[in-house]
Model the fold of this input.
Amino acid sequence: MPLWANPRVGLVVLLVLLVALFSTIRPAFLDTRLTLTPLQSDISVYLVIGLAQMSVLSLGHMNMAVGRMAATSAFAMGLVHHTLGAGLLVSLFTGLVVGAGLGALAGLIISRTGVNSFVVTLAMDFALVGLITILYTGVVDGVAFPTMPAGMEALRFDTFADYCAGEICGPRIPLVAPFALAAALLTGLLFRWSRVGREILMTGSSPRAAELSGIPTRGRVVQAHALSGLLAALAGFLLAANNGAFSAGIGDGFLLPSFLAPVLGGTLLAGGAVSVLGTVLGATLTQVIYKGLNLLQFQLDRLQLYIGLVLLAALSLDRARHVLAGRREAAP
Amino acid sequence: MLVAENLVKTFPGVRALDGATLTLQPGTVHALLGENGAGKSTLVKLLTGVYRPDGGRITLDGGELHLGGPLDAQRAGIGVVHQERNLIPAFSVAENIVLHHLPGRAGWLDRARMRAEARRCLDLLEVDLDPDTPVARLSVAQGQLVEIAKALSLDNKVLLLDEPTASLTGDEADRLYTVVRRLRDSGHAVVLVSHKLEEVFAVADTVTVLRDGRSVAEAEPLAGFTQGQIVDLMVGRAFASIELAERTVGEQAPPALRLDGVSTALGHRDVSLAVRPGEILGLYGLVGAGRSELAKAVLGLERITAGTVEVHGEPARIRNVGEALRRHRIGYVTEDRKDEGLFLEQPVTRNIAVTVWRRLARAGLVPDRRERALAETYVERLGIRVSSPRQLAGQLSGGNQQKVSLAKWLAADCDILIVDEPTVGIDVRTKAAFHELIAGLAAQGLALLLISSDLPEVVVLADRIAVMSDLRVVGELDNDHDYPRMSQQIIRLVHAETHVEGRVSAA
Ligand SMILES: Nc1ncnc2c1ncn2[C@@H]1O[C@H](COP(=O)(O)OP(=O)(O)OP(=O)(O)O)[C@@H](O)[C@H]1O
Ligand SMILES: [Mg+2]
Done:
């Protein structure tokens, strides 16, 4: 395959071009404190939610409830802190368990009933929307928890530059970034080298052949969905850290970007193949576009229109490149 | 007259055709022969507009033919049965058969006419199938019959058949060839791709042999060759037939796999079979006899309603293939490689290693190196033709796909192996090698249940032969490897049963 036919290369090129464009028009785009650090926080959140969607795309499934799984998990984190006074790690852990549990439940329903994942998770999304409202009104009589565990403030405002060993301080990278990076590395490891991850991909490639090769396909479906829920919970946590509160609105804007990042990065909707690196690039690209247009002071509705157009162009380019590559191969 | 001259077709890393020439006269049956991966299917696809040639030209009655797609070929009167199934699973048999010329009235589908047309095509082949059955519910062989009926439904001057009888038994193949002869006598030209040389010699008039994408014999009268000469041409050197390993079956050893009075939800009644270690039990029957379904019931994929399954003398309740593989060391090589045997979008390495990842893994991680080494061992051992072990399974020729589907079960290192039509679509040389391999496995003490519709294969390999008909075992014979006698006995068993039932049932 020629180098230019690799979707990841196209993304990198596009990314470089856009950064050059934005920083020429608005030099402030390269300002670390104003733009780059917040940009990294945003990328972290959308990378993790992209990974959450990617985990089930690997099966050829969808998770339409990523946003609400994130919200429910965030509620759980807020709740254990609010009522039991739990610290940061205990809260995070509880949230991750709740997220994984919700995902596993979706996976269980899908594998037991054979109902399409789109339908199951969409129904789950509806149910959770209602549940979240009830929970927040019941517990805090509002839409957000008033307090956060100690340390969340640091996650929100600090960068590694605030931590120095003698004279040497860290780079201006927000503290949330390593969470996302770790999630990406572990997910990559899972799908690339682990037996379970590969079996999930094989199940996505052909469920029937997977079953006849001795792969416990039902278990793999449940595990992939549990992973999706777990990552959604992590994304919810990171967004809460960025926003400064566990609130009912967490995850409202997750659904579309969750698909964009992996799909731009070359993950197939049909299942059987994923790309973590592509998802990283896809998430970065979407957030760069968002930030850039924002700096150029587009109004929000216009902003969304333009983002839609840019993404459409990016996807068409991708498709065109694919077709061209195919022709080149057919006629050497 | 259809002529293909010096056709060239290249895929990444492979030159599938490299100057192939085919001359097709009306009123003849033309055999197109060659080893697995020689380029036969690629040639068929060029002639039917599936691929476009990179070089050479195709002419029909003197005029050059530019085929932009399959529809162009259809308009030019070229019908085809491809090696791989092309039916739409959700549609009915009738809808599939008349798909390209759906009878309509004022924009509405004329269902009655559609059904009648489908019925007519099925009757040509004497296939007893309800035209309203969804294709998803058909067995592999039934699907193949529908595919052939579909090609017959168009009035074509040229008919290309790419291994049409690969999964059919003798009777069904005979009916197909009756139709083929009738078409030839009315002036049609038929191309027949097949690895079953007996059939080829019985029906074809002329022959083209492909080797490595080139024609090494061009439209020569078949009568001038012996089967041995044709095989030598395909292989490119003198081909010595293989002697099978001598085996002794431990008479007193307890059966490795025993079925006792098994009935299933699908309608199998009171099936009893036993295979001992080191033994090959052949399971022969017509299409629809329920052999594959019986195997699947043993593996827990179909429900067993009565009777017992014993593995090495212990009652076993197997729920899925994973359990069969890991707890009982039973493997099952499926007959349906495209849907059940292979991951077409995945590389050959993963297709072979999938059953043994557990063994290859270190701390849950599978090193690429070990996986690749394993795959390479089997690529070499079975002579699988790949441009690299990373090549996608779906890009291999049909016979090479079959080898991959078998390789993963050889790698799994089982005690009991159920092989379902293991040599479908495999060339003569490799088939002999496969037979040697299977006999070798038995000699090592494996218990083999060989499901096959290939009567010579069953008689060559099996120690005992069980005959199934209509979801029951109708007889079991000790095999003395005397083909004329054994085949007669077996066919008599099959037909005794169907006469009682009143008619040949394909359902
Ligand atoms: N779509 C494809 N992409 C890449 N390689 C291909 C593709 N189709 C066929 N090939 C390669 O071209 C060669 C010829 O394949 P082809 O299917 O024509 O063989 P064949 O003679 O029909 O063999 P068989 O008897 O096994 O069906 C093989 O090496 C195969 O791997
Ligand atoms: Mg072929």
